[in-house]
């Protein structure tokens, strides 16, 4: 389905500009008359097929009802005829007259009275030899039956008899004398014309009911067709299949993680990248997204409890940028789409580049300073004062080596000493003094070096940024003090002379994405302290942030704490406060 020209919701079939993705190529190659023979729409097909099935079903049901009704009527009329025949056979006057040969023709009169009262079509009384003693047609009285007498066995008989008067439901009952011998037969029948009239009346009732059912079925089919058209947005099966293929290709072909949810927060679509970043396993389609993600800021962003665009979330192994957008189709909300971008490597590279840029600026300042000193040395040599030049060079060399040697003597890890030297040089460019407290000492605290460098680097950057951005006077007022000690576990303390953190924001500074500093292009704020908090919790340590004035953060890690192998994957450095 093609979207609207302005990029909004997709167009419906009845709106201008709508094009079917599957039928458009056919239209361009097929004559106009082909459209008249094109397959009917899905909704129309459903309507036609439902109506056909209902017609067949109702017609078949009507025939079955009519057939069953006819059989029932046959049986009912046979039993009715049997009742009349048995009653006549048990009349003493009939038996007596038949035994005497009916000289007074009483049997015909009695049969006439029975016909007038019970309304059978005929009552025929015969002797055991088949000679008629009564019949609706007097001309047949005294003549023999065309078929043998059926009740000579002393039993009653039921059936459909073609008879001389026509097809009828017939019952035959034996006439017995005083000794119980069969002396004759009573045959009672109800012609099919009487039965057919009642059957026709019942059939019309069935036809009327069937018509009502068909009308209701037609209305239901129309409503169903409209419902299907609304649900499928008037798309045909081939178009739906094509869209499904395109959706699957797009969903699993992009590198960005994507999760689709319905209005109830249940997952409707998810790709492999999203599974990897969120640690989703097994079947998750149809499950509430909130039940699959641990409680915290990540779940709040994924479920929409916390809004915003390009929100940064720090997980155990990655830095994620999350966006959550509502999805509407034809003016109806159908859920939300959440995209997650793994920004771990770009964030690391960006901060590495930022650190390198800071070192380059520091080296540029030092280069300028050393150039000035070389000019002094060159001038002294030019005027021939070599002793003064020699003393000046010794003083410069001793001053440059003092800080590095002091740090190297206190810290067994040369990487930590080098980090502090570099941070000191970068801070000096911003007129901020980084001071390592006299009691600082680190031999081997049993903590991975990468964790130590990450914590120290982020805390020092926090302090330098806070002091450099605060109004102040002399160097004493623009100071960051670092204390590192391994006497009882690893203790790291960083204090600065900046404004510090307000009391009501002490918990916020540990939240992913929270920062009081202005945003910079390409750099996501609010990661540094959150990362330190993750590392500290992973090592079962403590992190204390103290309120201002002046920034003060303390970290303690137990001796011998070892982080998982993935602990060093997040190494970006950034201030958060």
Count the E strands: 14
Please identify the structural class as seen in this structure. alpha+beta
Which percent range describes the beta-strand content?
Answer: 15-25%
Instruction: Output the strand order for the largest sheet.
Output: 6-5-9-8-7
Terminal-residue CA separation: 49 Å
> Count of DSSP helices?
13
Rg, Cα atoms, Å: 52 Å
Q: What is the makeup of the main sheet?
A: 5 strands, antiparallel
Mean pLDDT equals: 76
**Secondary-structure element order, as H and E?**
HHHHEEEEHHEEHHEEEHHHEHEEHEE
Shape designation: rod-shaped
Low-confidence segments? 1-39, 561-577
- Share in helix: 40-55%
Please render the helix and strand layout as text.
Layout: H1 24-29, H2 42-89, H3 92-99, H4 106-118, E1 122-127, E2 157-161, E3 168-176, E4 182-191, H5 192-231, H6 237-253, E5 257-261, E6 267-270, H7 272-278, H8 297-303, E7 311-314, E8 319-329, E9 332-342, H9 344-382, H10 386-410, H11 414-429, E10 433-436, H12 449-468, E11 479-485, E12 490-496, H13 528-538, E13 542-546, E14 552-557
Parallel strand pairs: 10-11
Antiparallel strand pairs: 1-4, 2-3, 3-4, 5-6, 5-9, 7-8, 8-9, 11-12, 12-14, 13-14
Helix pairs in contact: 2-5, 9-10, 9-11, 10-11, 11-12, 12-13
Describe the model.
The longest helix is centred in the N-terminal third of the chain and has 48 residues, at 42-89. Mean pLDDT is 76; it is low at 1-39 and 561-577. The chain contains 13 helices and 14 strands. The strands form three sheets. Strands 6-5-9-8-7 form a five-stranded antiparallel sheet, sandwiched between helices. A five-stranded mixed sheet has the order 10-11-12-14-13, covered by helices on one side. It has a four-stranded antiparallel sheet with strand order 1-4-3-2. It has helices at 24-29, 42-89, 92-99, 106-118, 192-231, 237-253, 272-278, 297-303, 344-382, 386-410, 414-429, 449-468, 528-538; strands spanning 122-127, 157-161, 168-176, 182-191, 257-261, 267-270, 311-314, 319-329, 332-342, 433-436, 479-485, 490-496, 542-546, 552-557. Strand 8 and strand 9 form a beta hairpin. With 577 residues, the protein is an alpha+beta fold.
